[in-house]
Structures are given as structure tokens and as C-alpha cells.
Design brief:
mainly alpha; cell membrane; Poly_Biosynth_Transport; Flippase; 18 helices; Polysacc_synth; 481 residues
Length: 481
């Protein structure tokens, strides 16, 4: 339990600091570059992401699993071989990805500046291909992940602040992004060489094909999620232009910052649910899942309602008056957070029960919904249509994942509390309604006072009416050793 708790703290700290620095970078770029250039940067990042899909292909997930199977560190030769093989293969895939996005950038009907930005971002494929995050995750050395994240964002932030002062300085953004990644690679390779031995790069195509065959199923879910995430701004940019991408991306990045809660939850929930499932005790698993649902409902409701009410204040505070249209997009996109965190709960439950193919099917159908609906809604409503599509497609994923989740828990003997329990929402909903009165009754007070007032009021009421109990918070720590 001590190591699990320590790793959780490191992961949460890394996510928080990374998002905080990312927030400052985001706000600075949005204000300095202007809406059109900020949208152009996000469009280039979206195309760059397709190269990342080829770079990834499930190999980091496979590497984490295989390294973890070698624990404790008594399989150094085998693990070293895994690291060398995966890094060599990812470098080869990075080269293919760079060629791919370079060809795309030269053929798309976009400005010279946009094409140049895409190619500049493409060089970062070679640094991401050398990342060893997956190795340190498999070794359960999460402190190295946290340090890497701090190095990455700190270097990027300093470069941006020093080099970017005018709207036309946008070329420095992908250069700063590359340098942040480069310093991470340097740190991770130095730690590896000093702690685990010399690293060799050996590319063998037959071995690489076998690795790809093993890794591909593990990467399907991540690839579909990333495709759905970047497809929207890419399509929006093609149809409506850079300004529309700027408004959508401004709102989407706010939601991304909030979904740090989902990422930390997933890291905690997957091993916990797996442990209960492997223990062959359906009643304890049922109790765990029920408590997790209750906690998530209590967390999600106030965030969604508060974000809807304070959307204009939040967007204006971070981006300035020029981005005010993004507040309407943010009001819709915040529902994505509420949906995706429950998708994660059902998804990690399926993965823990070795039903990851079912989860991949749910993600795939959600992505297909996105691809089908997006063009029409973007043409009709612009960035608002993009937001509606993102939320709607995630809702489709949730419904299908929940269906497979119900079938899974029925198969292991759970008969009560098997799905979403609406009764868990009554007390949090009551506390949320009272919380919502505060910013509505005092609209002219400072935004920070509104936020902190809502937090104190909500949790004060929730504790008073016993919407969350000690047993809800204690579960998962009493059995974790």
C-alpha cells in the first residue's frame, strides 16, 4: 500500500504541475498570438497528432506490461532487450510518421505558415519515440515520470516566455515544444544508463513485426481516443478556419485541464479493481464499484454545474475578452468530462476482467459517431457543432461501455447495484443546487471568491447531509497492502 500511495502522489503531483504550467503556456500563447494564429498552432498540433498515432501503436502499453512482468529487477537482460527493441522500432515508426505528416502538410490547401508549422512539429516525433515513460511506469518508479513532466513543461514555458512576444512569433512554439521533449529524453536516458545499464539500439524487422503484432490490440483504444480527440479541430479548421479552431481549442483545453481528475482516477482504479477481481470475491468487488460510482457522482455534479454558471467569467479570466465566444463552447464541452469519467470506470472494469475488446468496440462506435456527425454539425453550427458532436459521441461510448459492463458483472455473479445508481445522485444534486445559488445571487463578486465560495459551500452541505461517508473514502485503502 505504501508504494501504491507514493506512486499515486507522484502521478497526481506530476499531472497537477504539468497542467498548471501548461495552463500558463496556453493562456500566454492565446493572448500573445491572437485568435487566428492560436488557431493555426492548434491546427498544426492536430495534424502532428496523426504522426503520434503511428509512433505509438500500443508499443508503450506493451512495454509497460512486459517490464512489469520482469519484476523484481531480476530479468535485466530480458528487460534491456525489450527496451532496446521497442525504442528502435519506435524510432523507425517516428521516421515514417514524419514522412507522412510532411506529405500531408505539402498537399493540404493551407497557408505556407501552417505547412511550415506542421513540419516543425513533426521533428518532435523523434523525441517522443525515445520517451521511456512506459519503462519507468513498468518499474513503478513514478518519481521519474513526475520529474520528466516538470522538465518538459518548464523548458517549454521558459522558451515561450523568452522568445514569443508578438503575434508573428508563432514559429517558436513548435521549437519550444521540441526542446521540452529533448530535455526529457536526455534526462530519462541518463537515468537509465546510470541505473539499469547500457542502452543498445538494435532494429530487427522480423522481431519488430512480432512486437507490432503483440502491441496492436493494446493500442487500439488509445489510438481511437486520440483520433477522436484530434479529428474535431482538424475538420473544424478545414471547414470554418483558424478562428473557429481557436475558440473551440480554448474551451477544449480548459476541459482537458479538468480531466486530470479522470486520468488520476484511472491510474488508481485500474489496479484496485483488478486486485478485487483477481481475488474472486464478487461481493467486495460490487461494494468497491458502488462506492466508486457514488464518489464520482459527488465529484462530477458540482464541477459541471459550476462550470456552466461561471463559463463566461472563467474564459474571460484566462483568455481575455476576445475569446468570449468560447464560453458557449465550454458550457457544452464540460459535459464531456462528466460522461468520460464514467466511461473510464466501466472501461477499467472491463479491462480488469480481460474484456478490453468490448471496451475497444465501445470506443470504436463512439469514434464512428463522431466522424459521421461532425461534418454536418460543423457546417451548421461551427465550433458549437463540434462541441455537441464530442459530447454526443462520448455519450454513445458510455452507453455501449455500460452495456458491456452490466453483462460482465452479471457473468461474475453480481446481481445488485450492477449499473448506474441514480439514488447516489440525490444528496449531491441537492448540495449542488444550493451551491449554484451563491454565484447567481452574487454575480458581481470576484471570480476567485465565487469559485472558492462554491467549493466550501458544496462540500460543507454534502458533509452535513452525509452525502459522502467515511466508508466511501476508506474503501480501497483498507485492503490495499
Amino acid at each position: 500500500m505504501r508504494r501504491t500511495f507514493k506512486n499515486l502522489l507522484f502521478v497526481a503531483l506530476g499531472e497537477f504541475l504539468g497542467q498548471l504550467l501548461g495552463f500558463f503556456i496556453l493562456a500566454y500563447l492565446a493572448r500573445t498570438l491572437g485568435v487566428a494564429n492560436f488557431g493555426m498552432i492548434n491546427f498544426a498540433q492536430a495534424l502532428f497528432s496523426y504522426g503520434l498515432l503511428l509512433n505509438y501503436l500500443g508499443l508503450p502499453t506493451l512495454g509497460t506490461r512486459e517490464v512489469a512482468r520482469c519484476q523484481p529487477w531480476n530479468g535485466q537482460r530480458r528487460t534491456g532487450s525489450i527496451v532496446s527493441s521497442i525504442l528502435s522500432l519506435r524510432l523507425f515508426l517516428s521516421l515514417l510518421g514524419f514522412i507522412l505528416i510532411s506529405i500531408i502538410s505539402l498537399t493540404i490547401p493551407k497557408s505556407y505558415e501552417t505547412k511550415t508549422l506542421v513540419i516543425l512539429y513533426g521533428f518532435s516525433l523523434f523525441t517522443t519515440g525515445l520517451f521511456l515513460d512506459w519503462f519507468y511506469q513498468g518499474m513503478e518508479r513514478m518519481e521519474y515520470l513526475t520529474i520528466s513532466r516538470i522538465i518538459n513543461y518548464s523548458a517549454y514555458f521558459l522558451f515561450v516566455v523568452i522568445m514569443i512576444h508578438r503575434p508573428n512569433d508563432f514559429y517558436f512554439v513548435p521549437i519550444g515544444f521540441f526542446l521540452g521533449n529533448f530535455f526529457v529524453v536526455l534526462f530519462q536516458l541518463l537515468v537509465y544508463q546510470s541505473t539499469y545499464g547500457k542502452l543498445r539500439f538494435v532494429f530487427n524487422w522480423p522481431s519488430g513485426k512480432e512486437l507490432l503484432k503483440m502491441a496492436l490490440p493494446l493500442g487500439i483504444v488509445s489510438i481511437l481516443i486520440q483520433f477522436g480527440q484530434y479529428f474535431t479541430p482538424s475538420l473544424l479548421g478545414f471547414i470554418k478556419g483558424n478562428a473557429a479552431v481557436g475558440y473551440f481549442s480554448a474551451a477544449a483545453k480548459l476541459v482537458t485541464m479538468i480531466t486530470i481528475i479522470d486520468r488520476v482516477f484511472t491510474i488508481v482504479a485500474l489496479p484496485m479493481i483488478t486486485r478485487y477481481y483477481a481475488g474472486n470475491n464478487p461481493m467486495l468487488l460490487q461494494l468497491l464499484l458502488s462506492h466508486l460510482q457514488k464518489l464520482l457522482i459527488a465529484l462530477v455534479l458540482p464541477i459541471i454545474v459550476g462550470s456552466v454558471i461561471l463559463a463566461q467569467d472563467i474564459v474571460t479570466l484566462i483568455y481575455g475578452e476576445n475569446y468570449l465566444p468560447a464560453s458557449s463552447v465550454f458550457r457544452i464541452l464540460i459535459f464531456f468530462f462528466g460522461i468520460t469519467i464514467f466511461t473510464s470506470l466501466y472501461g477499467v472494469s472491463l479491462i480488469a476482467g480481460q474484456k478490453e475488446k468490448r471496451y475497444a468496440q465501445a470506443i470504436g462506435l463512439g469514434t464512428l459517431t463522431n466522424v459521421i456527425l461532425n461534418p454536418a454539425l460543423v457546417i451548421l453550427f461551427g465550433p458549437i457543432g463540434s462541441a455537441i458532436t464530442v459530447v454526443g459521441s462520448e455519450a454513445v461510448t458510455l452507453i455501449i461501455a455500460h452495456h458491456y459492463y452490466q453483462k460482465f458483472i452479471n457473468s461474475i455473479g453480481l446481481t445488485k447495484g450492477r449499473g448506474f445508481q441514480s439514488g447516489y445522485a440525490l444528496k449531491p444534486l441537492f448540495a449542488t443546487c444550493l451551491m449554484a445559488l451563491f454565484p447567481l445571487l452574487f454575480p458581481n463578486i470576484n471570480i476567485w471568491l465565487k469559485i472558492f465560495g462554491c467549493i466550501i459551500l458544496y462540500f460543507g452541505i454534502l458533509i452535513l447531509i452525509k452525502g459522502i461517508t467515511k466508508s466511501d473514502l476508506r474503501l480501497g485503502t483498507t485492503t490495499g497492502k
